[in-house]
Amino acid sequence: MGRRKGGIGIAVGTVAMLVGVTACGGGGSDKASGGDAKASGKPSASASPSPTKPLGPPMLLDTITPQTGTTVGVAMPISVIFTNPVAAKARATVEKHMKVSTSQPVVGAWHWMGDRRADWRPKTYWPSGTKVRVDADMTGVSNGNGRYGVHGYTHTFTIGDDVRADVSVTGHTMKVTRNGQTVRTLSINAGSAQYPTWDGTMAVIDKQEKVHMTSCSVGISCDKGSPNFYDLTLPWDIHLTQSGTYVHYSTGDPNPGSGSARGSHGCVHLSLSDAKWFYGQVKQGDPVTITGSPRGKAPADNGYADFNLGWDQWLAGSASGEQTTTAL
To answer: What is the DSSP letter of 123?
Structure first.
């Protein structure tokens, strides 16, 4: 199901929660949302702009994901959102001031999703157990549009177990693995011909025990007499895209699988017991890969679908190119 169009970011120190009405379907924004924490970091003694730079409004970071101190999945990017646009001419310098350090060497790169969001992802998935530190030292750094950073930000997080879910739309199955070993294979239903599910790999944005979902909020139908109208609060919701893809239980499809073959409005349906079990297995950043849908891959910035871009495509959006992390 899909989420209503909304912004990114939550207050420092809070747990990511979905807010407002959401719904499954093809409408709404394709942009990322959820699971972000406000950029944190105490100003240092040199927190004011360099005297060689003209004074002006500050360049600030709105959010840095993942939230500091968290444990995330192997497909989780580092996602930095700026409060104001960063000019193309300034991006290489900005990237160089956002240093990624790890407990073991990891090859990766930054990539710009428009002019306010920059993601860093490894070339392949993160190795489990990796400790990661992001030092965004923005003091005196220009955004190319008359703004300069006034202090630095630091986030640390850990890569947890390698949990993956592989969904076959045509096979009506979802295989869940942990550290390379199959844990369970679940029966599912996915999108219909009218409302197909996104293909590709989407890192879990967040999860919530209950979500209020309506067809009207994503433009499917606001007519209560329509067979596509729904207004439901549904449990065990794993959020995959900002435009509205969830893995969850649906009261309209209580026994999913090849026997029922009932299509959704774009979500992946599980039985109630399977949805609760899966909810307990996954965390932010775990990859859910969907195959067999005619819709095509979700855009990389529709949530955290960064791995839907090939490495050459990823590097094409980087100002400083491939890099190996600094040792912690």
So the answer is: S
Annotated catalytic residues are: 248, 267
**Residues for the chain: how many in total?**
328
Look at residue 233 in the predicted model and tell me its pLDDT: 74
pLDDT of residue 273: 97
Beta strands in 160-250 (DSSP E): 163-168, 173-178, 181-187, 200-203, 206-214, 231-239, 246-249
Closest to 278 measured CA to CA, from 270, 268, 289: 270
Q: Rounded CA gap, 17 and 176, in Å?
A: 24
How far is 86 from 99, CA to CA, in rounded Å? 17
What digits encode the pLDDT tens for the residues 268-299?
A: 999 999 999 999 999 999 999 999 999 999 99
pTM above the 0.70 mark?
yes
Q: Which residue(s) pair with 9 in the sheet?
A: none
Least Cα distance to 128 among 65, 76, 198 occurs for: 76
DSSP H helical ranges for the chain: 91-96, 272-281, 311-316
Q: How many other C-beta atoms lie within 10 A of the C-beta of residue 278?
A: 25
What sign does the CA torsion over 290, 295, 297, 303 have?
Answer: negative
